[in-house]
Structures are given as structure tokens and as C-alpha cells.
Design goal:
This protein is mainly alpha-helical. Among the domains are: about 5-135, Rossmann fold (3-Layer(aba) Sandwich), CATH 3.40.50; about 305-440, Alpha Horseshoe (Serine Threonine Protein Phosphatase 5, Tetratricopeptide repeat); about 445-540, Alpha Horseshoe (Serine Threonine Protein Phosphatase 5, Tetratricopeptide repeat). Helix content is about 70%, strand content about 5%. The chain has helices at about 5-10, 20-35, 45-55, 70-80, 100-105, 120-145, 150-165, 170-180, 185-200, 200-215, 220-230, 235-250, 250-265, 270-280, 285-300, 310-320, 330-345, 350-370, 370-385, 395-405, 410-425, 430-440, 445-460, 465-480, 485-500, 505-515, 530-540, and strands at about 15, 40, 60-65, 90-95, 115. The protein has a five-stranded parallel sheet, sandwiched between helices. The radius of gyration is 30 Å and the shape is elongated. Pfam families: Response_reg, TPR_16, TPR_8. This is Response regulator. It comes from Marinobacter xiaoshiensis.
Length: about 550
């Protein structure tokens, strides 16, 4: 009589990925002795991904360390991202390494199991038999999920709860996810509440909090996620959800702190590093943003998420930090920015547009280093080449405008931004970026200084210290003379002084000077209605 496992193993296809030939051959021998017939062996990531692209694979046994290039985590990440593995396929991470960094990084992409080297026949057969039995029992459900037939998958899950009690945890977790995918949040939360009423499980708590966030119950979700992280500090998905909840509460500083903590615990998650970089930039914390962009670029070297945008973002951050200073540290940052752009050009050499975008940023970096003559020479060549591109891509156009401002070509910069607004102004995010550059066409350091003065001026105005407010807004306008909000803030202070004292001495001239700076303010600008209102008020005062 044949071994019952033989038929189970024999019906499946296997892929073994390991850079040591002896181990690959040994694994094939053990699998065949279990009854497997269809076993493919590859040494590295590229042939592994290619094989999965053109062949259905039921079981992948992949070593974590594969020498230079992609590792097992990168393979799993790419297979999941490209949907090259069906839900019923099994991915087993094989490793002799047990470092925290490796385990945390690999866990982010949820392999079905880990196998620790050395592996013997008995261990392999026992682990695989259990996984294959579960796979076969749940195959009808996973097939419907792969087909995105979620209602049928839900029906099968509910039917299986009484028939397959040993897989109840998997079935309940899948039910919660399916109800959430369908937008049936009330049923999703019932599933999670039922699980949690019997046992405190992290995945159920995370699922419930996803539902709470989707229902805009941010306070409840944030409090619950904080407790979950405190009791299970390695459950990384909870950090991402907590950051999301805090962002929705407009507590971006706290959200950044959460992601910083998460990246110290699991530093190899590229998308989390990218999110941290973007959040730190929004919070004007350029040192943290720069380091997070560095990590994003580093992790991207072998990742499916590798993108030239990450290099450009890092170059921007380094440029911002180095601009205007000629000390040794700033020069090192500027040099790093140029190196990052050169690396991007090598890795994405097929794109001429990227090469030109790189030159635009390099031109601004040279200006920031005090190499104005060199920057102006570069600008002539860039302008000629950009004149041939229609329409100009938004991000390159914004970078070009920044570079024009940096080299005191203010009129050209404003004309370019007006063109960009015509092309992209219907997109709210694009309009915001264009407007922001129109308002604050100065270096990062100057921008932060002006924003600080603006906050101080507003506080002084609200407390009734009008003279202090006037002086503070005036200082800010020395940095950014054409800033709409600052000009309008100062006009508002001057009008208030007139209302309090009754004096109109020099009011008209000063206010007119500031209101005239905004003659070309586009109607779409967020300050335009306020501009019109104050303009009307000024006319009424001077009649």
C-alpha cells in the first residue's frame, strides 16, 4: 500500500530557490522521497520570478540569503506585488539566519512558514504535510478569492466553519477581510468582535481597528492601537494603522513619531520608510526626512518598488539642507545629492527625461553651493532643452521653477508656474504644489524662518499687540516679499491700527504698496477671495 502523503505531494508543483547547488539537489531528493514529481530548481531571484511568471507553482521553498542581488524577502515581495502566486500557493522561507532584522523584514510579507537549516526529511515532510492538508481543505475558498468572487467565498467560509473546526481561526480571519473588502463594515466588525470575545488575538484587534478607521471612529481606533502596540510591540501593521489614524486626526507629529519607532523595530520595509520620509517633509523635519529617503533608496536597490522618484526626493531633501551654506557639512550634503542623482541616471539610463530632470536639480545645487556662474551656464543649456518638451511634466516643471527662482529669474519662474497652472490646475494636489511655490519661492531655511515669523505675527495680532505684529510681518516679508498671506496679514494689521486710532496717516500708501504686490495673484489661489475683500475695504477707507 502506498503512503497517503505520496499522492498529496505528487499532485503539486514545487520551486526551490537557493544559491547553493548541493542544497538544491538535496531538497529535490527529499521532496521526491515524499512523493513530489514536479520539482524545479533555480539559484537566484531573477530565474525564480521568471519561472513563476510563466508557470503555476503550488509550493515555493526559498532561501533568504541568495548572495548578491535580491534576497528571499525581495522575491516574496515581488511575487505578492505582481500577484504571481495564487492564494492557494505556499511560500516557505528557508534560512540559517535568525537576525531580528531579517525575521521582522520577511514577516512583513507574510510567508506561510519558516524552515530553519539544516533541514532533514522528517522535518520537511511533517511541516509540508500539515500545510498542504490545510491548503487542500481551503482550496475552494481561495479559488473564489483569486477570482474576486467575494460573496461566494464568504458563503464557503460560513459553510466550512462547522465542517472544518480545526481551521476556524483562518476562516474567521478570512471572513473579516472579505466583509471589509466588500465594504460591509457592520458584518466585518461582528466577525472581529466574536473572535475577541473568546480570545484576544492581535490580527482580530488590527482588523477591528481597520473597520473603526473606515467608520471615522478615529479616537477609539487610536486608543486601541496604542494598547495593542504596548502589549505586542512587534506587530508592525498596528504601527501603520496608528500612524494613519493620527494623520486623520491632524496629529502628524505624533504619526511621524510612531513611524520612527516602527522603522527602528523593522528597518527593512521600504514603503514604511517612504511614508516616514513624506510625513517628516510635511512636518518640516528635513533631517528625519533625509535619513528616511536614504533608507528608501537603499532598500529600493533590489525591490519591486525601486523608483527614480525616491532618488529625486532624496536629492531634493539634501539640496534643501545644504542650500545657502558653504561650510564643510553643507558641501558634503550637496556632494551627496549630486552622487544620488548620478546613481539614478546610471540605474535608469533609458530615460532622457530623467537625465534632464537631474540636471535641473544639479543646477540648483550648484547655485546653493555658491557656484552661480556654473549654475547659470547649466541653466542656459537646460532652458534650451526644456523648450522642446510639450507639455512639461509637473514635477520637472516645479523643479525648473525652483531653480529659476534660486538664480533670481523671478519673472520667468512666475510665467512658468502660470503655464503649469493652466495645464494641471484642475488637479487639487497639483494646484497646491504650484501655489506653494508661488507663495514661498525661497530656500528651505528661509521658508522655515518666514513661517516662524508668520506664526509669531499672528499670535501678536490675536493678543492685541499690533505694533509687534506689524514689525514681525514686515521682517517675514523681507524674506519673501511677494508672499500673499504675509502681505494680506500686514494689511489687516495696518487696517486694525487705523480702526483703533482713527489715524489714516500713511495707511493708504503702505497698504497700496503691499496690495499691489499681489496684482498677478491667480483667481484659483486660496488667498484670492481674502485679497479682494481687503482690496474693497481699503477703497472704502480712502474714499
Amino acid at each position: 500500500m502506498s503512503d497517503p502523503n505520496e499522492n498529496v505531494f505528487g499532485k503539486l508543483s514545487y520551486l526551490v530557490v537557493d544559491d547553493f547547488e548541493n542544497f538544491r539537489i538535496s531538497m529535490r531528493h527529499m521532496l521526491r522521497s515524499c512523493g513530489a514529481d514536479n520539482v524545479e530548481l533555480v539559484a537566484h531571484a531573477k530565474p525564480a520570478i521568471e519561472y513563476c511568471t510563466y508557470n503555476h507553482v503550488d509550493v515555493v521553498l526559498c532561501d533568504y540569503n541568495l548572495g548578491k542581488g535580491k534576497n528571499g524577502q525581495h522575491i516574496l515581495e515581488e511575487l505578492r506585488h505582481k500577484k504571481l502566486l495564487k492564494r492557494s500557493s505556499l511560500f516557505l522561507m528557508v534560512t540559517s539566519e535568525s537576525s531580528r532584522e531579517m525575521v521582522m523584514g520577511a514577516r512583513e510579507y507574510q510567508p506561510d512558514a519558516y524552515l530553519t537549516k539544516p533541514i532533514n526529511h522528517a522535518m520537511l515532510e511533517k511541516r509540508l504535510s500539515s500545510l498542504i492538508s490545510q491548503r487542500n481543505a481551503l482550496l475552494p475558498i481561495n479559488r473564489e478569492i483569486d477570482r474576486e468572487n467575494y460573496p461566494e467565498a464568504i458563503s464557503l467560509c460560513n459553510a466550512a466553519l462547522s465542517r472544518l473546526p480545526r481551521y476556524k481561526t483562518w476562516l474567521m480571519k478570512t471572513l473579516g477581510e472579505l466583509y471589509f473588502l466588500l465594504g460591509d463594515l457592520s458584518y466585518a466588525i461582528k466577525v472581529y468582535d466574536e473572535v475577541l470575545s473568546q480570545r484576544e488575538l492581535s490580527w482580530a484587534r488590527v482588523g477591528r481597528n481597520k473597520v473603526l478607521l473606515a467608520n471615522h471612529r478615529y479616537d477609539e481606533a487610536v486608543e486601541s492601537l496604542r494598547k495593542l502596540i504596548k502589549s505586542h510591540p512587534d506587530y508592525m501593521e498596528a504601527y501603520d494603522l496608528l500612524a494613519e489614524g493620527l494623520e486623520r486626526q491632524n496629529r502628524s507629529g505624533q504619526a511621524q513619531n510612531v513611524l520612527e519607532l516602527a522603522t527602528t523595530r523593522s528597518p527593512n520595509a521600504l514603503l514604511r520608510q517612504k511614508h516616514l520620509a513624506e510625513l517628516a517633509e510635511a512636518n518640516q523635519d528635513m533631517e528625519t526626512a533625509t535619513e528616511a529617503w536614504r533608507q528608501t533608496v537603499r532598500l529600493g536597490a533590489h525591490s519591486i518598488h525601486h523608483s527614480p522618484d525616491h532618488h529625486i526626493a532624496l536629492a531634493h531633501a539634501l539640496c534643501d539642507l545644504s542650500d545657502g551654506d558653504t561650510d564643510e557639512g553643507s558641501q558634503a550634503l550637496a556632494h551627496e545629492a549630486i552622487s544620488v542623482l548620478a546613481s539614478m541616471e546610471r540605474q535608469f539610463s533609458e530615460s532622457k527625461t530623467l537625465e534632464l530632470h537631474s540636471l535641473v536639480i544639479q543646477c540648483r545645487i550648484q547655485a546653493g553651493r555658491g557656484e552661480v556662474e556654473k549654475a547659470n551656464s547649466m541653466l542656459e543649456s537646460i532652458s534650451e532643452r526644456l523648450s522642446e518638451i510639450h507639455p512639461l511634466e509637473l514635477e520637472m516643471g516645479l523643479d525648473y521653477a525652483k531653480t529659476l527662482y534660486r538664480l533670481d529669474n523671478v519673472r520667468e519662474a512666475k510665467t512658468l508656474l502660470a503655464r503649469l497652472h493652466e495645464s494641471y490646475g484642475e488637479d487639487p494636489e497639483a494646484a497646491r504644489k504650484i501655489e506653494s511655490l508661488l507663495d514661498e519661492p525661497v530656500s528651505f531655511r528661509m521658508k522655515i524662518k518666514a513661517r516662524g515669523l508668520n506664526r509669531e505675527g499672528i499670535a501678536a495680532f490675536e493678543s492685541g499687540a499690533l505694533k509687534e505684529a506689524e514689525e514681525t510681518f514686515s521682517k517675514a516679508l523681507e524674506i519673501i516679499p511677494d508672499h500673499p498671506a504675509l502681505n494680506l496679514n500686514l494689511i489687516q494689521v495696518l487696517i486694525k491700527q487705523h480702526e483703533d486710532t482713527g489715524s489714516i496717516d500713511k495707511l493708504t500708501d503702505r497698504c497700496q504698496q503691499h496690495i499691489s504686490r499681489l496684482d498677478d495673484l491667480p483667481e484659483q489661489h486660496g488667498q484670492y477671495r481674502r485679497y479682494l475683500a481687503l482690496q474693497r475695504k481699503l477703497k472704502a477707507l480712502t474714499l
